[in-house]
Write a structure and sequence with these properties.
Strand order of the largest sheet: 1-5-3-8-7
Distance between the termini: 50 Å
Helix content: 55-70%
Largest sheet: 5 strands, mixed
Oligomer: single chain
Low-confidence stretches: none
Shape: flat
Number of strands: 8
Protein backbone atom coordinates (compact mmCIF):
# COMPACT_ATOMS: atom_id res chain seq x y z
CA UNK A 1 0.00 0.00 0.00
CA UNK A 2 2.82 2.41 0.88
CA UNK A 3 4.44 1.71 -2.49
CA UNK A 4 1.21 2.53 -4.33
CA UNK A 5 0.79 5.73 -2.32
CA UNK A 6 4.39 6.73 -3.11
CA UNK A 7 3.82 6.13 -6.82
CA UNK A 8 0.55 8.08 -6.71
CA UNK A 9 2.30 10.95 -4.92
CA UNK A 10 5.04 10.94 -7.58
CA UNK A 11 2.42 11.14 -10.32
CA UNK A 12 0.68 13.98 -8.52
CA UNK A 13 3.97 15.86 -8.15
CA UNK A 14 4.73 15.38 -11.85
CA UNK A 15 1.33 16.71 -12.90
CA UNK A 16 0.59 20.33 -13.71
CA UNK A 17 -2.96 20.35 -12.37
CA UNK A 18 -2.78 19.36 -8.70
CA UNK A 19 -1.67 22.61 -7.05
CA UNK A 20 -3.59 24.91 -9.45
CA UNK A 21 -6.83 23.05 -8.73
CA UNK A 22 -6.21 23.36 -4.99
CA UNK A 23 -5.66 27.12 -5.36
CA UNK A 24 -8.80 27.45 -7.49
CA UNK A 25 -10.77 25.83 -4.69
CA UNK A 26 -9.05 28.16 -2.22
CA UNK A 27 -10.06 31.14 -4.37
CA UNK A 28 -13.67 29.96 -4.37
CA UNK A 29 -13.63 29.50 -0.59
CA UNK A 30 -12.09 32.95 -0.09
CA UNK A 31 -14.78 34.51 -2.27
CA UNK A 32 -17.57 32.83 -0.30
CA UNK A 33 -16.14 34.08 3.00
CA UNK A 34 -15.27 37.60 1.77
CA UNK A 35 -18.70 38.16 0.23
CA UNK A 36 -20.34 37.56 3.60
CA UNK A 37 -18.24 40.21 5.35
CA UNK A 38 -18.97 43.93 5.18
CA UNK A 39 -16.58 46.18 7.03
CA UNK A 40 -17.84 49.56 8.15
CA UNK A 41 -15.62 52.43 9.20
CA UNK A 42 -16.80 54.24 12.32
CA UNK A 43 -15.52 57.68 11.30
CA UNK A 44 -13.59 58.78 8.24
CA UNK A 45 -13.45 56.30 5.33
CA UNK A 46 -10.49 53.92 5.43
CA UNK A 47 -8.30 54.73 2.43
CA UNK A 48 -7.55 51.16 1.49
CA UNK A 49 -11.12 49.86 1.81
CA UNK A 50 -13.45 50.03 -1.19
CA UNK A 51 -16.33 52.46 -0.62
CA UNK A 52 -18.17 52.62 -3.96
CA UNK A 53 -21.61 51.38 -4.91
CA UNK A 54 -22.70 48.14 -6.58
CA UNK A 55 -22.62 49.50 -10.14
CA UNK A 56 -19.07 50.80 -9.79
CA UNK A 57 -17.97 47.56 -8.14
CA UNK A 58 -19.47 45.51 -10.97
CA UNK A 59 -17.61 47.48 -13.65
CA UNK A 60 -14.40 47.48 -11.61
CA UNK A 61 -14.38 43.72 -10.96
CA UNK A 62 -15.36 43.04 -14.58
CA UNK A 63 -12.29 44.96 -15.77
CA UNK A 64 -10.06 43.14 -13.29
CA UNK A 65 -11.48 39.81 -14.44
CA UNK A 66 -10.74 40.56 -18.08
CA UNK A 67 -7.17 41.53 -17.22
CA UNK A 68 -6.65 38.39 -15.12
CA UNK A 69 -8.00 36.09 -17.83
CA UNK A 70 -5.52 37.66 -20.24
CA UNK A 71 -2.71 37.24 -17.70
CA UNK A 72 -3.61 33.60 -17.01
CA UNK A 73 -3.78 32.86 -20.74
CA UNK A 74 -0.38 34.48 -21.24
CA UNK A 75 1.16 32.45 -18.41
CA UNK A 76 -0.24 29.18 -19.74
CA UNK A 77 0.96 30.01 -23.26
CA UNK A 78 4.47 30.79 -22.01
CA UNK A 79 4.50 27.53 -20.06
CA UNK A 80 3.51 25.53 -23.15
CA UNK A 81 6.24 27.21 -25.22
CA UNK A 82 8.85 26.41 -22.57
CA UNK A 83 7.70 22.78 -22.40
CA UNK A 84 7.92 22.50 -26.19
CA UNK A 85 11.42 23.98 -26.24
CA UNK A 86 12.51 21.70 -23.41
CA UNK A 87 11.18 18.61 -25.18
CA UNK A 88 12.97 19.59 -28.37
CA UNK A 89 16.35 20.55 -26.94
CA UNK A 90 16.63 18.45 -23.78
CA UNK A 91 14.34 15.48 -24.40
CA UNK A 92 10.66 14.66 -23.88
CA UNK A 93 11.39 12.44 -20.87
CA UNK A 94 12.39 15.55 -18.93
CA UNK A 95 8.93 17.11 -19.25
CA UNK A 96 7.86 15.67 -15.84
CA UNK A 97 10.79 17.56 -14.28
CA UNK A 98 9.35 20.85 -15.54
CA UNK A 99 5.79 19.87 -14.65
CA UNK A 100 6.83 19.05 -11.08
CA UNK A 101 8.18 22.57 -10.50
CA UNK A 102 6.17 23.95 -7.58
CA UNK A 103 6.94 27.57 -8.42
CA UNK A 104 5.42 27.20 -11.86
CA UNK A 105 2.36 25.43 -10.47
CA UNK A 106 2.02 27.99 -7.67
CA UNK A 107 2.09 30.87 -10.15
CA UNK A 108 -0.46 29.29 -12.47
CA UNK A 109 -2.61 28.38 -9.49
CA UNK A 110 -2.54 31.96 -8.21
CA UNK A 111 -3.64 33.33 -11.59
CA UNK A 112 -6.42 30.78 -12.02
CA UNK A 113 -7.49 31.04 -8.39
CA UNK A 114 -7.78 34.82 -8.77
CA UNK A 115 -9.93 34.33 -11.88
CA UNK A 116 -12.24 32.01 -9.93
CA UNK A 117 -12.42 34.51 -7.07
CA UNK A 118 -13.27 37.40 -9.42
CA UNK A 119 -15.94 35.35 -11.21
CA UNK A 120 -17.73 34.58 -7.96
CA UNK A 121 -17.31 38.15 -6.70
CA UNK A 122 -18.70 39.60 -9.94
CA UNK A 123 -21.69 37.27 -9.79
CA UNK A 124 -22.55 38.49 -6.29
CA UNK A 125 -22.15 42.23 -6.86
CA UNK A 126 -25.78 43.13 -7.54
CA UNK A 127 -28.36 45.44 -5.98
CA UNK A 128 -27.66 48.59 -4.04
CA UNK A 129 -24.52 49.69 -2.23
CA UNK A 130 -25.54 47.94 0.97
CA UNK A 131 -25.29 44.60 -0.84
CA UNK A 132 -21.66 45.18 -1.83
CA UNK A 133 -18.98 43.56 0.29
CA UNK A 134 -16.28 46.21 0.42
CA UNK A 135 -13.85 43.61 1.74
CA UNK A 136 -14.47 41.34 -1.29
CA UNK A 137 -13.75 44.18 -3.72
CA UNK A 138 -10.63 45.19 -1.79
CA UNK A 139 -9.35 41.60 -1.82
CA UNK A 140 -9.90 41.57 -5.60
CA UNK A 141 -7.51 44.49 -5.98
CA UNK A 142 -4.98 42.87 -3.66
CA UNK A 143 -5.06 39.54 -5.54
CA UNK A 144 -4.55 41.26 -8.90
CA UNK A 145 -1.61 43.30 -7.55
CA UNK A 146 0.00 40.14 -6.17
CA UNK A 147 -0.59 38.38 -9.49
CA UNK A 148 1.18 41.16 -11.41
CA UNK A 149 4.24 40.86 -9.16
CA UNK A 150 4.20 37.05 -9.36
CA UNK A 151 3.99 37.26 -13.17
CA UNK A 152 7.36 39.02 -13.26
CA UNK A 153 8.99 36.34 -11.10
CA UNK A 154 7.19 33.64 -13.10
CA UNK A 155 8.66 34.80 -16.41
CA UNK A 156 12.12 35.11 -14.84
CA UNK A 157 11.86 31.62 -13.34
CA UNK A 158 10.74 30.02 -16.61
CA UNK A 159 13.59 31.70 -18.47
CA UNK A 160 16.05 30.28 -15.94
CA UNK A 161 14.42 26.85 -15.81
CA UNK A 162 15.16 26.05 -19.45
CA UNK A 163 18.89 26.77 -19.13
CA UNK A 164 20.74 23.48 -19.54
CA UNK A 165 22.84 23.87 -16.38
CA UNK A 166 19.71 24.50 -14.30
CA UNK A 167 17.96 21.43 -15.71
CA UNK A 168 21.03 19.26 -15.19
CA UNK A 169 21.27 20.28 -11.55
CA UNK A 170 17.56 19.70 -10.92
CA UNK A 171 17.68 16.22 -12.46
CA UNK A 172 20.89 15.49 -10.55
CA UNK A 173 19.35 16.51 -7.24
CA UNK A 174 16.34 14.30 -7.95
CA UNK A 175 18.72 11.41 -8.72
CA UNK A 176 20.62 11.97 -5.47
CA UNK A 177 17.34 11.90 -3.57
CA UNK A 178 16.45 8.57 -5.18
CA UNK A 179 19.86 7.18 -4.25
CA UNK A 180 19.35 8.10 -0.59
CA UNK A 181 15.85 6.62 -0.59
CA UNK A 182 16.62 3.35 -2.38
CA UNK A 183 20.16 2.63 -1.17
CA UNK A 184 19.88 2.71 2.59
CA UNK A 185 23.58 2.16 3.21
CA UNK A 186 22.97 -1.06 5.14
CA UNK A 187 24.01 -4.33 3.54
CA UNK A 188 22.45 -6.56 6.22
CA UNK A 189 23.54 -10.01 7.34
CA UNK A 190 21.86 -11.93 4.51
CA UNK A 191 23.48 -12.44 1.14
CA UNK A 192 21.85 -12.75 -2.25
CA UNK A 193 21.47 -16.15 -3.88
CA UNK A 194 24.43 -17.65 -5.68
CA UNK A 195 23.90 -18.56 -9.36
CA UNK A 196 23.70 -22.24 -8.42
CA UNK A 197 21.15 -21.62 -5.67
CA UNK A 198 19.12 -19.42 -8.00
CA UNK A 199 19.09 -22.13 -10.66
CA UNK A 200 17.98 -24.71 -8.10
CA UNK A 201 15.22 -22.39 -6.87
CA UNK A 202 13.93 -21.94 -10.41
CA UNK A 203 13.92 -25.69 -10.98
CA UNK A 204 12.11 -26.55 -7.75
CA UNK A 205 9.82 -23.51 -7.47
CA UNK A 206 6.37 -22.84 -8.88
CA UNK A 207 6.32 -20.28 -11.69
CA UNK A 208 4.46 -16.95 -11.55
CA UNK A 209 3.30 -15.26 -14.77
CA UNK A 210 2.84 -11.56 -15.43
CA UNK A 211 -0.86 -10.57 -15.39
CA UNK A 212 -0.43 -7.91 -18.09
CA UNK A 213 2.07 -6.18 -20.35
CA UNK A 214 3.90 -2.94 -19.59
CA UNK A 215 6.77 -1.37 -17.74
CA UNK A 216 7.18 -2.32 -14.10
CA UNK A 217 6.78 1.05 -12.41
CA UNK A 218 7.04 -0.27 -8.86
CA UNK A 219 6.81 -3.48 -6.85
CA UNK A 220 5.15 -3.63 -3.44
CA UNK A 221 7.80 -5.78 -1.75
CA UNK A 222 6.23 -5.61 1.74
CA UNK A 223 2.92 -6.92 0.38
CA UNK A 224 4.68 -9.86 -1.28
CA UNK A 225 6.82 -10.49 1.79
CA UNK A 226 3.91 -10.53 4.23
CA UNK A 227 1.89 -12.81 1.94
CA UNK A 228 4.86 -15.18 1.69
CA UNK A 229 5.37 -15.12 5.46
CA UNK A 230 1.72 -16.03 6.05
CA UNK A 231 2.25 -19.18 3.97
CA UNK A 232 5.82 -19.87 5.14
CA UNK A 233 7.10 -19.56 1.58
CA UNK A 234 9.90 -17.78 -0.26
CA UNK A 235 9.51 -15.84 -3.51
CA UNK A 236 12.23 -15.38 -6.14
CA UNK A 237 11.53 -12.56 -8.58
CA UNK A 238 13.02 -12.55 -12.07
CA UNK A 239 12.38 -8.88 -12.88
CA UNK A 240 12.67 -5.50 -11.20
CA UNK A 241 11.24 -1.98 -11.61
CA UNK A 242 12.17 -0.57 -15.00
CA UNK A 243 11.90 -3.86 -16.87
CA UNK A 244 9.27 -4.35 -19.56
CA UNK A 245 7.20 -7.53 -19.36
CA UNK A 246 4.65 -9.17 -21.61
CA UNK A 247 1.38 -10.72 -20.51
CA UNK A 248 2.06 -14.28 -19.40
CA UNK A 249 5.82 -13.75 -19.13
CA UNK A 250 7.62 -15.46 -16.25
CA UNK A 251 8.23 -12.97 -13.43
CA UNK A 252 9.13 -15.23 -10.51
CA UNK A 253 8.89 -18.48 -8.60
CA UNK A 254 7.40 -19.66 -5.30
CA UNK A 255 9.11 -22.23 -3.13
CA UNK A 256 8.13 -24.77 -1.92
CA UNK A 257 5.54 -26.13 -4.30
CA UNK A 258 2.34 -26.82 -2.43
CA UNK A 259 -1.42 -26.58 -2.75
CA UNK A 260 -2.73 -23.08 -2.23
CA UNK A 261 0.18 -21.32 -3.92
CA UNK A 262 -2.36 -19.80 -6.31
CA UNK A 263 -3.34 -17.34 -3.58
CA UNK A 264 0.27 -16.26 -3.08
CA UNK A 265 0.80 -16.11 -6.84
CA UNK A 266 -2.15 -13.71 -7.20
CA UNK A 267 -0.80 -11.61 -4.32
CA UNK A 268 2.52 -11.31 -6.14
CA UNK A 269 0.79 -10.34 -9.38
CA UNK A 270 -1.27 -7.65 -7.62
CA UNK A 271 1.92 -6.24 -6.09
CA UNK A 272 3.34 -5.46 -9.53
CA UNK A 273 2.38 -1.93 -10.65
CA UNK A 274 2.55 -1.87 -14.44
CA UNK A 275 2.24 1.14 -16.71
CA UNK A 276 2.97 2.46 -20.17
CA UNK A 277 6.14 4.29 -19.15
CA UNK A 278 9.01 4.02 -16.69
CA UNK A 279 9.12 6.00 -13.47
CA UNK A 280 11.91 6.88 -11.06
CA UNK A 281 10.05 5.65 -7.96
CA UNK A 282 12.16 2.47 -7.63
CA UNK A 283 14.27 2.72 -10.80
CA UNK A 284 17.66 4.38 -10.41
CA UNK A 285 18.67 3.56 -13.97
CA UNK A 286 15.78 5.63 -15.29
CA UNK A 287 16.87 8.65 -13.26
CA UNK A 288 20.41 8.24 -14.60
CA UNK A 289 19.16 7.93 -18.17
CA UNK A 290 17.32 11.24 -17.84
CA UNK A 291 20.68 12.94 -17.41
CA UNK A 292 22.27 10.81 -20.11
CA UNK A 293 19.55 11.84 -22.56
CA UNK A 294 20.53 15.50 -22.12
CA UNK A 295 24.12 14.63 -23.03
CA UNK A 296 23.12 12.49 -26.02
CA UNK A 297 20.95 15.27 -27.46
CA UNK A 298 23.73 17.78 -26.89
CA UNK A 299 26.11 15.54 -28.85
CA UNK A 300 23.69 15.00 -31.74
CA UNK A 301 24.81 16.49 -35.10
CA UNK A 302 21.92 18.96 -35.11
CA UNK A 303 22.94 20.52 -31.77
CA UNK A 304 26.66 19.68 -31.30
CA UNK A 305 27.04 21.19 -27.82
CA UNK A 306 29.89 19.36 -26.06
CA UNK A 307 29.90 21.84 -23.16
CA UNK A 308 26.43 20.72 -22.07
CA UNK A 309 27.49 17.08 -22.38
CA UNK A 310 30.55 17.82 -20.23
CA UNK A 311 28.31 19.40 -17.59
CA UNK A 312 26.22 16.21 -17.59
CA UNK A 313 29.34 14.09 -17.12
CA UNK A 314 30.39 16.23 -14.16
CA UNK A 315 26.95 15.93 -12.54
CA UNK A 316 26.78 12.19 -13.18
CA UNK A 317 30.13 11.71 -11.49
CA UNK A 318 28.74 13.46 -8.39
CA UNK A 319 25.82 11.04 -8.24
CA UNK A 320 27.99 8.00 -8.98
CA UNK A 321 30.28 9.02 -6.11
CA UNK A 322 27.23 9.05 -3.84
CA UNK A 323 26.14 5.62 -5.10
CA UNK A 324 29.51 3.96 -4.66
CA UNK A 325 29.77 5.08 -1.04
CA UNK A 326 26.49 3.39 -0.14
CA UNK A 327 25.95 -0.34 0.18
CA UNK A 328 24.49 -2.09 -2.85
CA UNK A 329 20.93 -3.31 -2.62
CA UNK A 330 21.40 -6.98 -1.58
CA UNK A 331 18.19 -7.94 -3.37
CA UNK A 332 16.43 -9.50 -0.38
CA UNK A 333 13.43 -8.71 1.82
CA UNK A 334 13.07 -10.14 5.33
CA UNK A 335 10.05 -10.45 7.57
CA UNK A 336 9.87 -9.25 11.19
CA UNK A 337 11.64 -12.41 12.39
CA UNK A 338 14.56 -11.84 10.03
CA UNK A 339 13.62 -14.68 7.68
CA UNK A 340 14.26 -14.02 4.00
CA UNK A 341 10.95 -14.00 2.12
CA UNK A 342 11.91 -12.37 -1.18
CA UNK A 343 14.93 -12.62 -3.44
CA UNK A 344 14.78 -10.00 -6.17
CA UNK A 345 17.20 -8.63 -8.78
CA UNK A 346 18.68 -5.19 -8.24
CA UNK A 347 20.86 -2.86 -10.27
CA UNK A 348 24.51 -3.36 -9.34
CA UNK A 349 27.02 -0.53 -9.11
CA UNK A 350 28.64 -1.76 -12.33
CA UNK A 351 25.30 -1.61 -14.15
CA UNK A 352 24.56 1.91 -12.89
CA UNK A 353 28.05 3.07 -13.84
CA UNK A 354 27.61 1.57 -17.29
CA UNK A 355 24.24 3.32 -17.69
CA UNK A 356 25.86 6.63 -16.78
CA UNK A 357 28.94 6.60 -19.00
CA UNK A 358 28.76 4.00 -21.79
CA UNK A 359 26.21 5.69 -24.08
CA UNK A 360 27.96 9.03 -23.72
CA UNK A 361 31.27 7.35 -24.54
CA UNK A 362 29.82 5.87 -27.74
CA UNK A 363 28.14 9.13 -28.80
CA UNK A 364 31.20 11.28 -28.07
CA UNK A 365 33.93 8.82 -29.04
CA UNK A 366 35.35 11.13 -31.71
CA UNK A 367 35.12 14.27 -29.57
CA UNK A 368 38.31 14.80 -27.54
CA UNK A 369 36.59 17.12 -25.04
CA UNK A 370 34.05 14.42 -24.14
CA UNK A 371 36.55 11.58 -23.98
CA UNK A 372 38.94 13.57 -21.79
CA UNK A 373 36.09 14.65 -19.49
CA UNK A 374 35.01 11.01 -19.11
CA UNK A 375 38.59 9.99 -18.42
CA UNK A 376 39.10 12.67 -15.77
CA UNK A 377 35.88 11.91 -13.92
CA UNK A 378 36.40 8.15 -14.11
CA UNK A 379 39.92 8.56 -12.75
CA UNK A 380 38.59 10.69 -9.89
CA UNK A 381 35.98 8.06 -9.07
CA UNK A 382 38.60 5.31 -9.17
CA UNK A 383 40.78 7.08 -6.62
CA UNK A 384 37.83 7.67 -4.27
CA UNK A 385 36.07 4.32 -4.75
CA UNK A 386 36.00 1.53 -2.16
CA UNK A 387 38.11 -1.43 -3.19
CA UNK A 388 35.13 -3.60 -4.21
CA UNK A 389 33.95 -0.99 -6.74
CA UNK A 390 37.29 -0.32 -8.38
CA UNK A 391 37.01 -3.27 -10.77
CA UNK A 392 33.91 -1.78 -12.41
CA UNK A 393 35.54 1.64 -12.76
CA UNK A 394 38.74 0.05 -14.08
CA UNK A 395 36.64 -1.56 -16.80
CA UNK A 396 35.35 1.87 -17.79
CA UNK A 397 38.90 3.21 -17.87
CA UNK A 398 40.00 0.34 -20.11
CA UNK A 399 37.14 0.90 -22.54
CA UNK A 400 37.88 4.62 -22.61
CA UNK A 401 41.50 3.89 -23.47
CA UNK A 402 40.63 1.50 -26.30
CA UNK A 403 37.94 3.76 -27.74
CA UNK A 404 40.08 6.89 -27.53
CA UNK A 405 43.12 5.33 -29.18
CA UNK A 406 40.89 4.10 -32.00
CA UNK A 407 38.80 7.23 -32.64
CA UNK A 408 40.95 10.24 -31.69
CA UNK A 409 43.08 11.24 -34.66
CA UNK A 410 45.18 14.02 -33.15
CA UNK A 411 48.25 12.68 -31.29
CA UNK A 412 47.97 15.52 -28.77
CA UNK A 413 44.38 14.54 -27.97
CA UNK A 414 45.40 10.92 -27.48
CA UNK A 415 48.22 11.99 -25.19
CA UNK A 416 45.88 14.14 -23.08
CA UNK A 417 43.48 11.20 -22.82
CA UNK A 418 46.22 8.82 -21.71
CA UNK A 419 47.51 11.35 -19.19
CA UNK A 420 44.04 11.71 -17.69
CA UNK A 421 43.62 7.93 -17.52
CA UNK A 422 47.00 7.39 -15.92
CA UNK A 423 46.05 9.69 -13.04
CA UNK A 424 43.85 6.87 -11.75
CA UNK A 425 46.89 4.64 -11.32
CA UNK A 426 49.01 7.32 -9.65
Amino acid sequence: MITRIALLWTRLQNSLWGLPIALCLAGAALAIVALRVRLRAGGDPVWWLYSGDAADASVFISNLLGAMITMATLAISITMVVLALAAQSLGPRLIPIFMSDNRTKLSLGLFLGTVVYLLLALRSVVGDADAVSNLAVTISVLLVLISVIVLLFFVHHLARSIVADTVIERVGQALDGQVRDLLTGESGKHKSLTPAARKSFQKEGEAIASPAAGYIQAIDYPAIGHAAADRNAVVLLAVRPGHHVLAGELIGWIKPRRAGNEVLSKAVQKSFILGRDRTSTQDLEYSIRQLVEIALRALSPGINDPHTATAVIDRLSTSIALIMNRADDPGIWCDDEGTVRIHHPSASFAALLDSAFSEIRHAGSSNPEIMIALAKRSAQLYRLAPQHHRKAIAGQLTRLRKTGLRTLKDPMDRQLLLTSLNVARA
